[in-house]
Write a structure and sequence with these properties.
It is built from 5 helices and no strands. The protein has 122 residues and is mostly helical. The two termini are 27 Å apart.
Length: 122
């Protein structure tokens, strides 16, 4: 996958976003395993955030319908919006300058809803 992405192909931050999304999704699986033993309500606040991230990642990112027509830029922006629902400290695979330029928790849900709505309008 990495040979056809990045600056000159898609966007410079493509590989970085992909790496961070999948690292966070791996933490979702860990949180789900723990929740199956102790219950989701007993998880730490961070693990509860990972659980929420996982549901949204599956619904909006992985669950894109076959008829949805999302551009690569919209997909990468959606990735940033989903990552912005997590605490900044959880983004441990991204360069701080990249986080500073793209992390926006105040507008994460507006971005997600706009991208998902636009998919249905095409």
């Amino acid at each position: 996958m990495k040979d056809g992405i990045g600056e000159g192909y898609t966007r410079k931050d493509h590989q970085d976003i992909a790496n961070q999304l999948f690292a966070c999704y791996a933490k979702v699986q860990d949180a789900r395993s723990l929740a199956s033993v102790i219950g989701e309500e007993e998880l730490s606040p961070l693990d509860q955030k990972y659980m929420e991230f996982g549901r949204n990642f599956e619904k909006y990112f992985i669950g894109q319908s076959f008829t949805a027509n999302r551009s690569m830029n919209e997909t990468l922006n959606l990735g940033w919006a989903l990552l912005s629902t997590l605490p900044k400290e959880a983004l441990d695979r991204l360069d701080p300058a990249l986080i500073e330029a793209n992390y926006n928790p105040d507008h994460a849900w507006i971005t997600i809803e706009l991208i998902v709505k636009n998919e249905g309008d095409r």
